[in-house]
Specification:
This protein has 230 residues and is an alpha/beta fold. It has 2 domains: 3-124 and 204-222, 3-Layer(aba) Sandwich (Rossmann fold), CATH 3.40.50; 131-199, Alpha-Beta Plaits (2-Layer Sandwich). Helices cover 25% and strands 29% of the residues. It has helices at 3-13, 30-39, 54-62, 100-108, 140-149, 183-191; strands spanning 23-26, 48-51, 67-68, 76-81, 85-86, 92-93, 110-118, 131-135, 153-156, 158-159, 162-163, 171-176, 196-199, 201-202, 209-214, 217-222. The chain has a 7-stranded mixed sheet with strand order 3-2-1-4-7-15-16, with helices on both faces. Strand 10 (158-159) and strand 11 (162-163) form a beta hairpin. It is globular, with a radius of gyration of 17 Å. The structure holds ribulose-5-phosphate.
Length: 230
Amino acid sequence: MTQDELKGLVGQAALQYVVPGEIVGVGTGSTVNKFIEALATMKDRVRGAVSSSVASTERLRAIGIRVFDANDVDELAVYIDGADEIDAQGHMIKGGGAALTREKIVAAQSRRFVCIADESKLVKVLGAFPVPVEVIPMATARIARQFAAMGGKAQVRMKDGAPLVTDNGQHILDVSGLQIAQPLAFESEVNQWPGVVTVGVFAHQKASVCLLGTASGVRTLDCQGAGAAA
Ligand code: 5RP
């Protein structure tokens, strides 16, 4: 099975977590795009969605799903999103699609986080995938030096020859060379550096369950209770 087919498999499987009559939280990325395609088949049974990016909002609207502002909704039953890496406890690296800040906001608003990913994303220790960090541009160099002191190498993400600008008007640093053995502590530490908008480690907002696409079908990883979320 190709990686694309594995993503399709988990995108489809995620439908079972969507609560009919409710508003669903929707993430960003190629796996979530498969979920949005699948969601089209039950669009008349959901009230709408809260989206984590302009790109997902456009896709949701294109299939006729109403997109609510996060401020107009209290709690969401479920948030469906992909990951760049996930461990067995449900801690993740996210932000490969530069949507990490809004993803963390919608995840925090949701009772349950259902991660959908192909099995290549499952790791023992987070960090082989460079950690995306959304930053205020004037703090970039200082934050890069702080990562260097930890053994990390931070690079500004570029697009068309210029720094990529997020949906929030900020930049992304991709930090390689880190081994994140303590995701909760790492997230708390980096998040309080001046100029950091959001670090792409999701430990406080970890996955409740992960649907992993494998050659033999969907493997369900129950991450609830497998490591404390704060
Ligand atoms: C976007 C994300 C995505 O969930 C993550 O990058 C995985 O993407 P894909 O499903 O395309 O592999 O965090 O900011």
